[in-house]
Design brief:
The complex is a heterodimer of chains A (451) and B (301). Chain A contains 15 helices and 16 strands. With 451 residues, chain A is α/β, with parallel strands linked by helices. Chain A folds into two domains: 216 residues, Rossmann fold, CATH 3.40.50; 154 residues, Response regulator (Rossmann fold). In chain A, strands 7-6-8-9-10-13-14 form a seven-stranded mixed sheet, sandwiched between helices. A three-stranded parallel sheet of chain A has the order 3-4-5, sandwiched between helices. Chain A is globular and about 65 Å long. The chains are: A alpha/beta (451), B mainly alpha (301).
């Protein structure tokens, strides 16, 4: 009986509190014609919560900044809704379905924050005329916008990132000719995200004469002892850490144990956050990771976030995480989204933007250094220019090193080797087009010049 | 020593020592199964809850041993609450109902742990050096981690303590009686609720030790609850109600999955150790359905 009473009490309390909150929400002024809806797919719980919460927090902080400081974009307030899918692909698709119809003109774009969800949504989003942006993750061949009009692996994709790693190694070793005879281990998750770079590593190994060994990490990768004993036997010159979440940290511990130098482990940018290095303690010192944006708080845009967002108690994550890797990645993603909305408003008029309008603006986005400076984000993200044929628009990466407490840049922007990646991207996209019966765009198509 | 032989021995030892760490998690499952016949689906979440509680208390500047004591007290309190709120109303219900309740408990504890503390990654240093055993490395070129050796020692002490506690004295007898038939045990005056609370508290203690050790290795974060995945094949192989089975099962699973990964992996694509462990456990099941040390149940009509 006591339990029954407790359940009834708790349930009644929840209903009452919901009723008491509802009028407050209804009382807030809401005019759909003056609001731009943006869906936020995230994962704030579960095995990848550190990345998900930091990224979503950064995005939402920037949206809040624009609302609080500028009154939105040209007077159009940004409104958003989160959907936590726990990095579960099926739930990610559910979240997409739940949010795609919200707002006056529906959701204009999604940033799935998962290669798996991106793969699952590509065809669905194209059918729904909704843009997918995947900053720094797969799928890579969506770079060829003639085949993938609705997908944008903007700023940089995985294949170009892999070539920047080889450029970086060559710089350290004294030139590309020094790569000959070198041994590189590609330690990757056994997952669509993990295996995506295998073809480009094989192509580079053949071109430059180094030996690459692909060692798959079975999910969740919490115990990699046997893999690192194999690495100890191979005695590689470099190890590529292509993992995610906890499996990023484990290699640092294992490397320390076998005495493998941490400054010869080069992580993908999903293994290059504070959350990857801190749990490894001293074992992480010297570890190097690629990145496509800055880390730290010494930027005007971050100062504004402190003033206009955290200063009025509207922050979306712990203030100690502002300026961390994942937070600034989220800020960068929000800058891209909002600059596309701004561009779409220039063409289609000030008001909520539809998926098709957003897509056109994304495909014609030229985020210049001057514009980034106006946003107070110089150094936070690099300039890039999207075209019909190039949905990546950039491709460069920087390299950062963990000193035991924080990440520090050790290179300027390193150029990718597009002479290797572009033919592979086109071939892969062409194979996809053939499989799906897609005719690649040419000439003027969907408002863009596709050559 | 030939290089290949040294490498094989190195893999074998690393596997055995990994197996000890799996056993540490498996022990928690065994304790609860022994007392109630229930497979506690929430054991991984208990590891997460214990480790998060411990690390967050440590981060408040509390002394290491005091933090251990407080975290242990929290786990005992949790055990009492679980017994009162979840188990007591389900006495005499079919085992499957209790099992389903632990599934609910798993997700509740995961959410509660992250809700109370947070979902961030926390570094943890319990002071055990994670470096090679240099004298062995220099003399044989076989790499053995001192961290793993210390883990084996801690696990050994824990097993001795649990074996003594649950085999000797009144509590040990009561536990065995409850494990055998909890309704019969109640009818002769054995306090079932108290025994269940004690067992869940012991499982909480095991979760704390496992969480601290895995936490130093991986950092304390949600994924630490996934260590339960490593314990499952150990339980299948060793039997759900044998402490010795958890240890021996852990050693066999640890060694065989590492050897499989190193020697079979390259032939069939690599990354096989996660399912190889289950495959090995299933092979054992065919021969001994009750597991290596599990009790053979004979039902008479």
């Amino acid at each position: 009986m006591k339990i029954k009473k407790l359940v009834v009490t708790v349930f009644s309390g929840l209903v009452l509190s919901a009723l008491s909150v509802a009028p407050v929400m209804a009382a807030e002024e809401s005019d759909p014609t003056k609001e731009q809806f943006i869906p936020v797919l995230t994962y704030k719980t579960g095995p990848f919560a550190a990345g998900g919460s930091g990224f979503a927090g950064g995005m939402e902080d920037y949206f809040t900044l624009l609302n609080n400081r500028d009154g939105g974009i040209n007077g159009i307030k940004l409104v958003w809704e989160e959907c936590d899918y726990g990095y579960n692909t099926e739930r990610g698709v559910e979240c997409y379905e739940r949010l795609k119809g919200k707002g006056l003109k529906g959701a204009p774009a999604f940033q799935p924050l998962s290669t798996g969800v991106t793969y699952a949504l590509l065809e669905r989003a194209a059918a729904d005329k909704i843009t997918l942006i995947f900053l720094g993750y797969g799928r890579t061949d969506a770079t060829d916008g003639r085949v993938f009009p609705w997908g944008f692996p903007a700023i940089t994709n995985y294949w170009n990132q892999s070539t920047t790693k080889v450029q970086f190694i060559a710089q350290r070793e004294g030139g590309l000719d020094k790569l000959k005879g070198m041994k590189i281990v590609n330690l990757h998750l056994k997952h669509p995200y993990g295996i995506e770079t295998i073809p480009v590593w094989n192509a580079m190994a053949e071109k430059f004469g180094f030996e690459v060994t692909h060692i798959p990490v079975p999910w969740p990768g919490i115990d990699q002892k046997s893999l690192w004993l194999q690495i100890r036997k191979i005695q590689p010159d470099y190890v590529i850490n292509r993992n995610w979440g906890i499996s990023c940290t484990v290699p640092l511990r294992e490397a320390a144990r076998i005495g493998f130098p941490r400054d010869h482990i080069i992580g993908v940018w999903w293994c290059g956050a504070e959350e990857d290095a801190i749990p490894a303690g001293a074992a992480a010192e010297g570890y190097i990771a690629a990145t496509f944006h800055a880390v730290g708080t010494d930027f005007p845009v971050v100062n504004d976030i402190f003033e206009y967002v955290y200063g009025v108690m509207k922050g979306n994550i712990a203030s100690s995480r502002v300026g961390s890797v994942y937070h600034l990645r989220g800020v960068s993603a929000a800058i891209v989204t909002t600059e596309v909305i701004r561009k779409a408003q220039e063409k289609y008029g000030v008001g909520p933007i539809s998926g098709e309008e957003f897509r056109w603006a994304m495909e014609n986005l030229d985020l210049t250094a001057e514009r980034i400076a106006e946003l107070g984000a110089t150094g936070v993200l690099p300039p890039f220019k999207i075209t019909c044929a190039d949905h990546e628009g950039g491709g460069s990466a920087r390299f950062q090193q963990w000193d035991g407490n924080a990440w520090h840049f050790i290179t300027d922007w390193v150029e990718p080797m597009k002479d290797i990646t572009r033919p592979m991207i086109e071939a892969s996209a062409a194979a996809y087009a053939k499989e799906k019966g897609i005719t690649p765009r040419s000439g003027m198509s969907m408002g863009s010049d596709c050559g | 020593m030939p290089v290949e032989l040294a490498f094989a021995i190195e893999v074998l030892i690393a596997g055995l020592l990994s197996g000890v760490m799996y056993s540490l998690v498996a022990l928690g499952f065994v304790l609860i199964f022994k007392a109630s016949g229930v497979f506690n689906f929430a054991q991984g979440a208990m590891v997460l809850f214990a480790a998060l509680t411990f690390v967050r208390i440590l981060e408040m500047g509390v002394n290491f041993w005091l933090a251990i004591a407080i975290a242990l007290a929290v786990m005992i309190l949790l055990a009492v609450i679980i017994e009162r709120v979840m188990l007591r109303p389900l006495v005499a219900q079919p085992v499957i109902i209790l099992f389903m309740a632990t599934i609910g408990l798993n997700y509740f504890l995961e959410g509660l742990a992250q809700g109370i503390w947070d979902s961030q990654v926390h570094g943890l240093d319990i002071g055990i050096p994670d470096v090679p055993w240099m004298s062995i490395l220099e003399s044989t070129n076989i790499l053995i981690s001192l961290f793993d050796v210390w883990t084996a020692v801690i696990c050994g002490v824990l097993v001795l303590f649990l074996a003594f506690f649950f085999q000797k004295g009144r509590i040990g007898r009561a536990l065995r009686a409850v494990a055998d038939d909890n309704q019969a045990a109640m009818s002769v005056g054995i306090p079932l609720q108290l025994i269940w609370a004690i067992v869940w508290a012991a499982a909480g203690m095991v979760a704390l030790v496992a969480g601290a050790i895995w936490g130093q290795r991986l950092g304390v974060q949600f994924s630490i609850s996934l260590v339960a995945l490593k314990a499952l094949p150990v339980l299948i192989l060793g039997g759900f109600n044998s402490i010795a089975g958890a240890i021996i099962g852990g050693l066999i699973i640890g060694a065989s999955e590492k050897l499989a990964e190193v020697y079979l992996g390259p032939i069939i694509g690599g990354g096989i150790e996660s399912w190889a462990a289950y495959f090995i456990a299933m092979l054992f099941l065919i021969v001994r359905p009750q597991g290596l040390f599990g009790e053979k149940i004979i039902e008479r009509v």
